[in-house]
Amino acid sequence: MKISYNWLQQYVSAEIQPNAAADCLTATGLEVEHLTSTGGDPKLLQQLRVGEVLTKSAHPNADRLALAKVDVGEEVPLDIVCGAPNLEAGQKVVVACVGVEIPVKDGESFTIRKAKIRGEHSEGMLCSEREIGLSEDHAGIMILPDTAKVGQTVLEAIDLYSDYQFDIGLTPNRSDAMSHYGVARDLVAALRAQGKNASCKPIESTELPRDLPSVGLSIEDASACPRYSLLKITGIEVKDSPKWIQQSLKSIGLKSINNVVDATNFVLWEIGQPLHAFDASHVDQESIIVRKAKNQEQFVTLDDKSIKLDKEDLVIADANSALCIAGVYGGKYSGVTENTTSILLESAYFDATTIRKTSVRHGLRTDAAQRYEKGADPEILQQGLERAVDILRETCPNLAIEGYTSFDSGALKPAEVKLSLEYLDQLSGLSFSYATVVQILEDLDIKVLNEEGGWLTLSIPMYRSDVTRPEDVIEEILRIYGFDRVSIPDRVHSSLTFQDRFQVKPWIDRLAGLLNGFGYSEIMTNSISKSKHYKGLSEEDMARIVRLENSMTSELDIMRPNLIPEGLEVIAYNINRKSDNLRLFEFGHTYSKNGEAYSQRRELAIYFSSPGSLRHWSGEVAQQDFNAFKGLVDALNKSLKLSAQSMKVWSGSFAQGQEFMMSKKVFLRLGEVLRD
Predict the structure, then answer these.
(1) Left (φ > 0), alpha (ψ -120 to 50) or beta: where does 482 sit?
(2) Mean pLDDT score of the chain
């Protein structure tokens, strides 16, 4: 998850430097995996030129490349070969001329030179935002505004915006931190626990008018949708967003689309509340129905993908058809377009399990779905609407609120937890003062309802559905107070036990040492695999595959039945980067099931990939083939004193192979995979 430092600072009263903020967040459990400076290097931008694409023509020898003549203010336009899909004549673009040094990752760089690309001369490069350090956008070249002057430096043509980006490795239980305000809450709580003067600045928004007319709303499944708010807004003018909105979204790698869509995205990333805007003119009788889908009901997504819905999917519909997959994806025919003048703006809370199953079922992993499936905040529905309205007012001077309807099933209530202060000290190994405990809890929006006899009765905010026990509350207190402030005892007492059974690790260490000696390197791949790797298996073998009910992505959906596909992916990755002489091995578990019983076993996979000859410092060339690999395996068997009692030809999904057996069980397979 990406968080902008400048955006975050808007909600924190205390000044804190990016590195210090990253350290503080990591200590609270919001691990900052990367801290990146964004906004571009002024020295580089000073060398880049504004160019105008005079002509664009097809490359005679490559379908995906184009030839462009680009005016950079010199006497003769430059000929540049470009593969960007968004290149068009008449655009103002960023040009790296011959001699400019473009940075890449890990401090490396490359210098632009005259080159021949598929037989055509190229005298520079048209740059994307990522290539010049402005953002992570690499979908196409950067298009400059028409006001940019041909030949001037890019530094002169754009407003340089300096920022830092936190890349936070968020744990699944922390959906409350999937927004800038949520991260700011933890940062402020930690700063205050350190004795610093800090507070969360409130987000100001204009309250909705009272006594508004009702908007048509029918909730047919209150268990899947316990809360729902709907606002009708007229006077909408679909146009570009204010610059500050565009910059905020850009700072976390999002593209600006238009003022309506950007307002919903901004609220999502500011406070964590997903919103969805319907074109009111495309909603029958401007009345919304929240219902379960009909089995095999046809639905077309915003990106024109046609899918068949399941009867367990929750949809937002009108009297005629489904308009949106609730909490997951918008529909093609009710979305906001440049002709939209009135919208129905949705702010809802959906059941996490329902959204997760729908998202996984259809492979639609969106920002909104990620928040709903982990547990959104049902208390901020109206705040999200009010914030969006304030943002839209900046670009829509004739905006008017024409109606509002809100539904609450009453099923959602804050959880209560009783915490013993004595148990807190006992479990933490510290002695907390009452004032310190109350301050940390209140900074985390955990209310103290009552204190009696050393027991606190606490009301947990509904966005923290993972906090259900006293131990959870203690963890919250400790992560804000600082785990590093818990002292480590001078002595640790433990009991030694002996197990009289076969130990696997010495054998693994011995095999690893032998393979290292033969020049092999150990790899470690993901135990979660892709079912598409096993489409050719028989029905019996497919039934033995362990499938995930709640996969993190639509592709990674099974536990690997063997190690080979992931190893081949590693090899393919290296070969595609000109590293084709590979010696790899992996120890890992594989998984299977038999009926309702599950099992796992440890396997060793060895990979040998060669271009046909072995490059050596002495200059000698040795032929490498299947038999050479078989020689390695024979050497390992001899070292381990293993010998096959029988051997037969085995193919499986390989070009050729052999299978070795001992006590009527297969203990070794060799196979060859041919390159495409």
Answers:
(1) left
(2) 90
Cα-only R_g, the chain:
30
Residue with structure tokens 């400059």? 144
- Tell me the mean pLDDT in the region 390-395: 96
- Predicted confidence at residue 43, as pLDDT, reads 85
| Residue 456, amino acid | L
Q: How far apart are CA 63 and CA 33, in angstroms?
A: 39
> Which structure tokens are listed for 53?
């694409």
Least confident residue range of 22-26, 190-194, 350-354, 641-645: 641-645
| CA 114 distance to own-chain centroid | 38
How many Å apart are CA 28 and CA 480, to the nearest integer?
6
DSSP string covering 110-161, please?
Answer: EE---EEETTEEE-EEEPPTTTTTS-S--SSPPEEPTTSPTTSBHHHHS---
Q: Residue type for 124, please?
A: G
* Most distant CA pair in the chain, distance: 88
Pairing of strands 92-97, 101-103: unpaired
pLDDT higher than threshold 70 for residue 514: yes
For 390, phi then psi, to 5°, come to -60, -40
Alpha-carbon span 477 to 193, nearest angstrom: 10
Residues 462 and 378: beta-carbon distance below 8 Å: yes
Helix intervals (H) in 194-293: 243-250, 259-271
The closest of 7, 15, 22 to 167, measured between CA atoms, is 22
State the Cα–Cα distance between residues 189 and 177, nearest whole angstrom. 13
Give whole-number Cα distances, 295 to 199, 252, 304, 315, 333, in Å. 50, 38, 20, 12, 20
Hey, what are 56's tokens?
């664009």
